Amino acid sequence: MLKKVTITNVNTGHKSISMVDTDTHEKALIGSGISANETASIEDITGPDEKLQRMTSPKGGTDDCAAFFSGLGRCLERNISMTKSLKLQVNRVVSARYKGMIAEVIHSISMGEKFSDAMSRYRDIFSEDILSLIIAGEEAGQLARVCKRIGVAQKKSSKTLKKLKGAMIYPAVVTVLGVIVVIIMSFTLVPAMSKLFLNFGTELPFATKSLIALSNLFIHQPYMAAAPLVALYIFFSNFSKFTALKWVQDLALKIPVVGMLVRKSAAASGFRTLAMLTESNVRLTSALEITSSATWHYHYKEFFNRLRDHISVGRTLHEGFLMESHWLGADGRNLCGLIELASETGSGTEMLAEIADDYEEELDNMAASLDKLIEPLTMLILGVMVGFLIYAIYGPMFSLGDVILKKK
User: Fold this and answer.
1) % of the chain surpassing 90 pLDDT
2) Average pLDDT of 28-32?
3) What is the rounded distance in angstroms from the CA atom of residue 331 to the CA atom of residue 325?
4) How far apart are CA 289 and CA 48, in angstroms?
5) Model confidence over 290-317: pLDDT tens digits?
6) 124-153: per-residue pLDDT in tens?
7) 277 vs 149: CA distance, rounded Å
């Protein structure tokens, strides 16, 4: 349940509003981050207002996750108590979900629960690898170090995601505008054009017939004009689910530039997770299983699962890499060499971290120039749309001369 907390500064009278996703007023006060010189009034947000607030309020993403763990790790490193450390993170996060989560965890710890047990209730916010790292850090007495590492990793992920999303804005806007132009033409230009062409009784090109059929559909069933825009909204809002389909992931790997970007993104996140887990003294088979569940591309899920199976039957990590290197694409053989070097020098964790660093650096470089890489694709999409419209409209005109001359 959403709680609207109106905070008033007793010295200046300034008011600010904080939204907290929790079940009691006591937890809402904790989640609002109220200080000693402030008073608060709490209001329950229910019904349509709650749905509207959830739709328009900031979502708890990688930014909040990075801010929460980096701040928590810094506080714990300075021997500040867990409860106080958590309270200090309330004003670092912006989403109601994270504010409510912090309040709930503080309440659970005050009731005698372990930090890892309290955090495990929020699997919708934190992935399996993060929760496993928290458990490992708590058991090894390295929770501050683990939290800082999670914060650094989330900051890198957030930075890369922002670059990717920024680069995708241009093609998305072009696509949406193109669809809107086609819809407007279907109601204005195409009906007049179709009357002219049909009066001459000439055979029309397929593109023209398609455009006329689309125009007739929109004119006789106007509500269908919203269908393309609704489809685009569903596509972009469910983009992560769409990209999780195996055939989509296979197709993405075959696209020249996109395939390289996808591989480096999946490899960077996978090897970074594995490096953090092994550094936190998590057993290798468990670390590989957790890494597999946390990796978003099914090629790498399969790779880490098969590595776990090889380790389980007594093979070395290098042998497993050699047998399953085909899942890693063109980089497979090079990575096998690095793992062989790590096995000979006893520096497995350092080598995994180095591999993740290399992939992240390459990914950052590609993301920085992604707008230049996507620009040709955008121009191609725009060219196809404009070319289709030009051919559909002007194509029949090339045969109208013959029809007019015959009538004369």
Assistant:
1) 21
2) 90
3) 8
4) 41
5) 888 878 889 999 999 999 999 999 998 8
6) 888 887 888 888 888 778 889 889 888 888
7) 11
Strand partners, 3: 20, 44
Q: Residue-wise over 336-354: b if at least 16 C-beta within 10 A, else e?
A: bebbbebbeeeebbebbbe
pLDDT digits (tens, 9 = 90+) for 79-104: 999 999 999 999 999 999 999 999 99
Q: Which of 238, 226, 66, 285 is nearest to 161 (CA)?
A: 66
CB 16 within 8 A of CB 45: no
Q: What is the dihedral of CA 378, 381, 386, 392, to 10 degrees?
A: 180
Which neighbouring-strand residues pair with 257?
Answer: none
- Taking every pair of C-alpha atoms in the chain, what is the biggest distance, in angstroms? 97
Query: Is the Cβ–Cβ distance between 311 and 277 less than 8 Å?
Result: no
The whole-model pTM stands at 0.72
